[in-house]
Amino acid sequence: xxxxxxxxxNPINPYQRxxxxxxxxxxxxxxxxxxxxISTEAMKLLEAQNSGKIDQERAQRxxxxxxxxxAGTYQVDASKLAEKLAPYFKQxxxx
Length: 95
Prior knowledge:
Elements: H1 14-30, H2 40-51, H3 53-71, H4 78-94
């Protein structure tokens, strides 16, 4: 007398099989594709970068500053420096 059917290898419940296929179908339907959105500010920056206007102005400013520093004529504006450093010192003194 046979107690176990040895011809079966790893039997799966038909209900479980149908549930798994339904889950897989739902996963395929629910998956969303990635989306990218670019803000208007980013678009403006991209346009300006592509035009080369900002790069040329910046390069000229950097070259001018390099010449002033090498000639020893560059002057630091103490009031602007203090304005930029003041928030840093206020934060560090509060902590």
